[in-house]
């Protein structure tokens, strides 16, 4: 690659509640190393202070070098303060990526057996569950919700993995990993991807997508992966993905570049089968064929 990508640091606010007691949040900022198309010289800094008038409430000053934006919030509990900071960081990652002509796809991104697989599909199709199942079997999970593409390059949207309650039923082994409970409606658990068996690293962050896999529902008989025509894949991405750009020409060019250089497949799963074995077999076949 002609451009050198660097590690950046993002700060996430952790909120812990007292178990079997009153919900007294303990607020602390921890550092989480991630990579993204967000330039390393850009930053979002957060100064958190206890609110002077209300116990267990917090004030914060959020400063971003992107657009020289500064926000001041006051009197928030730990959960809502964390959400406010997350939204700010997420917004600025999007803004910076867009300014560098990246397009975001609504997809998960895993490196499975040396093959980079983008897993697309509508909300609730099982992208996160499949990506996590592969990660527990040794794949590198770079993103569960968004993939930036630009030409032949791809990189995962940096964020913690968001788990739903049903994920623990399908993948009970994920309970062995620490996750942060967020009492939304419905509730969500946030999992740090660097705690998984093969955590994503800086060197492997940027790489072209080798295979585009689109989840297309469940079947009573068998799990199967079949080639998908480019036109059908384009239509599916348009229907199911969060394609965004102020410049629709950039979005079209990036999507066309992805589809013209990447084999596309559909995955239909037998009920009760996550599909991890089928994806691993596809990745192994790609290695054999030299894709």
Cα-based radius of gyration, to the nearest Å? 20 Å
Give the tally of β-strands. Answer: 17
Helix-strand pattern: EEEEEHEEEHEEEEHEEEEHHEH
Major sheet description: 6 strands, mixed
Low-confidence stretches: 1-36
Would you write up a description of this structure?
The protein is an alpha+beta fold. It contains six helices and 17 strands. A hairpin with a 2-residue loop joins strand 10 (147-150) and strand 11 (153-156). Helix 2 (127-136) crosses helix 6. It is globular and about 65 Å long. Mean pLDDT is 79; it is low at 1-36.
List the helices and strands and how they pair.
Elements: E1 8-16, E2 26-34, E3 44-50, E4 58-64, E5 69-76, H1 78-99, E6 103-105, E7 107-112, E8 115-120, H2 127-136, E9 140-143, E10 147-150, E11 153-156, E12 161-163, H3 165-170, E13 179-182, E14 188-191, E15 211-219, E16 224-227, H4 230-240, H5 248-261, E17 264-270, H6 276-289
Parallel strand pairs: 8-15, 15-17
Antiparallel strand pairs: 1-2, 3-4, 4-5, 6-10, 7-8, 7-9, 10-11, 12-14, 13-14, 16-17
Helix pairs in contact: 2-6
């Amino acid at each position: 690659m002609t451009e050198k990508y660097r590690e950046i640091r993002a700060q996430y606010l952790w909120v812990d509640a007292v178990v079997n007691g009153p919900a007294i949040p303990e607020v602390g900022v921890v550092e989480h190393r991630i990579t993204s198309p967000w330039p390393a010289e850009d930053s979002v800094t957060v100064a958190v202070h206890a609110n002077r008038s209300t116990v267990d409430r917090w004030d914060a000053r959020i400063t971003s070098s992107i657009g020289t934006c500064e926000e001041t919030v006051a009197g928030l509990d730990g959960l809502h303060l964390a959400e406010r900071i997350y939204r700010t960081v997420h917004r600025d990652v999007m803004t910076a990526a867009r300014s560098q002509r990246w397009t975001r796809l609504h997809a998960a991104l895993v490196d499975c057996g040396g093959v980079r697989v983008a897993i697309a599909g509508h909300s609730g199709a099982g992208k996160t569950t499949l990506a996590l199942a592969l990660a527990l079997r040794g794949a590198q999970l770079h993103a569960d919700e968004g993939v930036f593409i630009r030409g032949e390059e791809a990189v995962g949207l940096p964020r913690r993995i968001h788990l739903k309650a049903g994920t623990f039923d399908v993948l009970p082994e994920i309970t062995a990993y620490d996750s942060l409970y967020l009492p939304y409606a419905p509730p969500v658990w946030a999992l740090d991807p660097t705690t998984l068996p093969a955590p994503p690293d800086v060197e492997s962050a940027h790489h072209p997508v080798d295979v585009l896999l689109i989840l297309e529902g469940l079947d009573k008989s068998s799990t199967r992966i079949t080639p998908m025509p480019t036109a059908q894949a384009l239509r599916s991405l348009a229907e199911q993905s969060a394609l965004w750009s102020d410049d629709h020409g950039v979005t079209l060019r990036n999507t066309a570049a992805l589809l013209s250089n990447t084999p596309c497949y559909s995955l239909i799963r037998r009920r009760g089968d996550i599909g991890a074995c089928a994806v691993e077999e596809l990745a192994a076949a790609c290695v054999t064929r030299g894709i």
